[in-house]
Automatic annotation (TrEMBL):
Keyword Acetylation listed: no
UniProtKB keywords: Membrane, Transmembrane, Transmembrane helix
Extent of Pro residues compositional bias: 173-187
Name of the molecule in the record: DUF4115 domain-containing protein
Composition bias, Polar residues: 142-151
Annotated InterPro entries: Bact_Cytoskel_RodZ (IPR050400), Lambda_DNA-bd_dom_sf (IPR010982), RodZ-like_C (IPR025194)
Signal peptide limits: none
Domain of life: Bacteria
Gene Ontology molecular functions: DNA binding
């Protein structure tokens, strides 16, 4: 053990510090601390770490690290020279000038674009609108003068040399007014006739062209379903649940069947006639056979 290792170890022992205590204080592993005391620097990672670890060791045991390193300069391996980094100065003047030029060009383009936009708007509102208004004003008299009244009466001018006799006039021929063709209206639905009735099914007949059906929820809510029979095939028109006061209307030109979940919760009207569905809480089916007028 050389003088450097002895001095560091002696200072540690005077501080009554074990290698574990020194490891806790310097955060340097115990085997590195032992290598420093024995000056076995090959164990350490490199010369830079040798000087750094000796400096931390000296500080932990109360010695001046610079004095220790200077005193035993020959024993401690020298630190490798730091590589010189040559700084390259990039000319910024040119880039700054280029940036200024680009910003100036961008500003100029924006100003020119704004001016052109304003000019286009002014041209549209002033020139185009005035041109359209003037052309409309000029063409209007032409329409008035060019259009001749087909019912106008031509008055012949007197022959030259004739005396001051009466002027002959032509009597206009009255134009017959065409009579309006009446628009056919759909045949309204006729009154309903109850054919038979049971607890779950009522059969009605109606003579006419259509069935105007209204289903209204009279209770808290009411489930319903309406079917039609085009070409004698059953087709569901709609089903759902109505809340109190809600109404669904249907206009059908075929036989119809109405089904409600509870008879006492529904109000059904067909062609303006309210049907008597009863006051039971059971489901109710109503079939209305649409018959053609005789």
């Amino acid at each position: 053990m050389s003088e450097l290792g002895q001095r560091l170890k002696q200072a540690r022992l005077e501080k009554r510090m074990s290698l574990d205590d020194l490891q806790e204080a310097t955060k340097i592993r115990t085997r590195y601390l032992e290598a420093i005391e024995e000056e076995n620097y090959k164990v350490l990672p490199g010369s830079f770490y040798v000087r750094a670890f000796i400096k931390s060791y000296a500080e932990a045991v109360g010695l001046d690290p610079n004095e220790v390193l200077n005193m035993y300069q020959g024993t401690v391996p020298a630190a490798p020279p730091e590589p010189t980094v040559e700084t390259i100065r990039t000319p910024r003047r040119n880039s700054a000038r280029s940036t200024d030029r680009l910003s100036k060009w961008a500003s100029t383009i924006m100003v020119v674009s704004f001016v052109l936009l304003i000019a286009a708007i002014v041209y549209y509102f002033v020139v185009v609108n005035n041109k359209g208004g003037s052309s409309g004003a000029i063409n209007e008299p032409n329409r008035l003068t060019d259009t001749a009244d087909p019912n106008a009466t031509s008055v012949p001018s007197p022959a030259p040399g004739s005396g001051g006799g009466a002027t002959a006039t032509t009597t206009p021929t009255p134009t017959p007014t065409p009579s309006a063709t009446p628009t056919p209206t759909p045949t309204p639905g006729g009154a309903l006739t109850l054919v038979n009735s049971s607890n779950s099914l009522d059969n009605y007949t109606a003579v006419g062209g259509k069935l105007d059906i209204t289903v209204t929820a009279a209770g808290t809510q009411c489930w319903y379903r309406v079917d039609s029979f085009p070409n004698n095939s059953k087709k569901m028109e709609k089903q759902g649940t109505l809340k109190q006061g809600e109404t669904e209307t249907f206009s059908l030109t075929t036989t119809a069947q109405i089904r409600v979940g509870a008879a006492n919760a529904a109000k059904i009207t067909v062609n303006g006639q309210e049907l008597n569905v009863g006051d039971a809480s059971n489901p109710k089916n109503i079939k209305i056979t649409l018959q053609p007028q005789p």
